[in-house]
Amino acid sequence: MPNRVPFNEALLSTVGTPQQTELLDSSPRSRVWRVRLTDGRMVIVKQITDAGDTSADADTRFAREAAGLRLAGRTSGRPAVAPAVLATDRPSRVLVLEHLEDLGRTDDWMPGYAESLARLHALTGPADAGALPAASGPTATDAESFLTLARALDVPVPSTVPDELAGLLERLDPTPHHALLHGDPCPGNDLRTADGVRFVDFERASLGNGLIELAYFRIGFPTCWCAMSVTAAPLTEVEDVYRATWRGLTGKDVPGDLADACAGWLIQGDALVERAHRGTADQFARVPAEDFEWGYISARERLVHRLGVVAGMTRDHDHLHALGRLSSTLAGRLLERWPTLRPLPAHDARPWY
Question: What would you measure as the largest C-alpha separation in the chain, in angstroms?
Fold first, then answer.
């Protein structure tokens, strides 16, 4: 029965007995319930499923989420950034989590999001190496696919771009970085509570450079179906909030280069499609022939936005100047061939759940 909460005797003893259950919307890879216990408490129960995955893959996602939530629970007297884990059952891949009251829609949602994102990232350090996988990023195959797309659209590739991309891949190596990354910090995975924004759904948690997720604001929320554009004063504000929060917690400036992080998202074709389709095809190779949609935004629309961002950030960049020129030309070619491509919606059009 899909509405039956998978509590074994150990969970019943630890958490309590369910009295009322409500199955909530979730991805095909999990089942989530809101549960009222017989003592009146509310909890969230999440079960990782193997839909579309092998059992081993589902086990890995469970372990990753449990580890990510455990690390995110290091509040040290500060406001929490994730729900507390009340109990787990590894054999059935079940997590019982604190129930959070979401305050719902607010027009000024980004500063609180940026602050909590920085606090999340600052929770871990070098001593946590190995607690989660290192963040995955672009590869040499991604870089070559991006260049092949440019050639397929008859855009000349400057001779120095391959070397620039090789250097980019080296700089994006996550090994020296140990920030706690959420992995998919998208609308719907951020809950606005009385104590600040808290993040849920840590199945893709990893350790790496926090700039990879700060880049979401500029690059259009690359792992989200609801891509958005943030510009001008709101963009400056949220990046200042993030950097100030990080500095206040760590005593250091945020390491790395935000332009590198944005360029890394640009050259990943898998960032044009939802999670279930990543790793299944060369997504850049599809772009000249079809404009496939994810949510209400098309692949070409996402790509034009990212190209424009990287072009703007790298005009005077020491290591990515030629990539910036290529990005500008490629964006122009896409708009020339498909002039009806739309800009991404503004950030104030984000969906609320």
Answer: 68
